[in-house]
Amino acid sequence: KDVFNSEEIYFENQRSGFSKETQNDPHAGRAASRNWAHLSEFAFYNNADSINEGVQNSIPLHKRTRIFKESTAFGMSGVGAAFFNEWEAASRGETIYKPFFVPWQAVEDYSINPSGKFIITKEEKELQRICPDITIGNLNWRRLKLSEYAFADNQIFTSEEKFSQDFPSYPEEAFLSTGRPVFDQDKIKSHIHALNTSPPPTCNVKITKPFLVMYSKMLKVFEVPKSGEKYVVGIDVSEGIEGGDASSGFVMTKDGKQVAMFYGRLDPDHLGKCMVELAKTYNDALLVPEVNSMGHTTLTAIKDEGYLKVYMRSVYDEIGLKETHKLGWRTSSANKQQMLSKLISMYRDEEIRILDINVLKEMQSLVRESNGDCSLNGKDRVVSACLACMGLSQVYEPATVTNPEVSEKIIYETKDLYRDKVHPNIKW
């Protein structure tokens, strides 16, 4: 019996059909077996995670099955975060989904030839530089669309920002943040485009260190250690579980140039051993591990390796009524903004040179909520970059004179503990 109604179309003789469910139902997509699904405007689903799980579990992995997740982007946080995270993972090749982006200028209807002389603005020239396929007709249509946005009531975004969200020219532009961006969006967009156009070369190094060998695919090297250069490594620690956050190690010079990136899921103790091997290779770099949660395990592994060049924080002992010093960085609600502000100011003033495009993409998605807070959950690369920036304050030149009036902390940290062990011929 054929069925035709507002919720379902079924053809008895073909034993196939279509059904429709709405995103308001968190159980949509469950309790059935299907061959394909089309999740329309996925970025606007309030129950995205639940629906996504239900749909994926109802469709077997087979060459004749399909799942399409199509949407206008709706920011990088809040409701739109699920779609953004799916897109980013697919773009990095981490899922079975394939990313497919259609820029507005590729749509034939979005072009109107100007009736008279058309003078291109500076902003439009920059847009054409990034997307050479944008024509004068496209730009003229864009101007007319911007004039429509200009008369909308209760605008949160400018007309240009609204257009970028509704009619993006390239993927990064699509995910206009729904909150207040932490970093300069135009600067990051330009930076990402530059790295996409001319990717920084990576070094093909032969790794012999026992733990780095095990996780060699997690290490990306932009520049090998230089004799006499000082380095710092920011370490964000995860639990290493499948599907959880990843651990990250951001390596840079004391002048703020990124030289390497370590990123992946591994046990916290193995992370500590990897970071010691990496630090020793980079002229005994200063390690700045975050010691929240599983960070204690990583710090213990670092100490077990006998590595002493670790960031030290000041802690006031309320029982002994004196200041003490402990290894590692402990992130709190009070100092989270401090380390984030350090990266913000260094990036704004071009005191840090980031070469890993994934760090920039995480920075791009950082937003401040209405209460001014900024969540760093899932921003592992950004956190490690923040920690590296904080570590710069403790990257010292070797001490040549011992001053008894200087605190033990400073004397201890200025000792160059491994300089005499570093050889010109580096073995990874």
Molecular structure report:
Helices cover 32% and strands 15% of the residues. The chain is an alpha+beta fold. It is built from 14 helices and 14 strands. The protein has a 5-stranded mixed sheet with strand order 7-10-9-8-11.
Question: How would the blueprint of this fold be written?
Answer:
Layout: E1 3-4, E2 8-11, E3 16-19, E4 36-40, H1 48-58, E5 66-70, H2 81-91, H3 122-130, H4 136-149, H5 159-166, H6 171-174, E6 180-181, H7 185-197, H8 210-214, E7 219-221, E8 231-236, E9 247-253, E10 258-264, H9 268-281, E11 286-289, H10 295-304, E12 312-317, E13 322-327, H11 336-348, H12 357-364, E14 367-368, H13 380-391, H14 408-414
Parallel strand pairs: 4-5, 8-11
Antiparallel strand pairs: 1-2, 2-3, 6-14, 7-10, 8-9, 9-10, 12-13
Give the key terms.
428 residues, alpha+beta, five-stranded mixed beta sheet, three-stranded antiparallel beta sheet, 14 strands, 32% helix
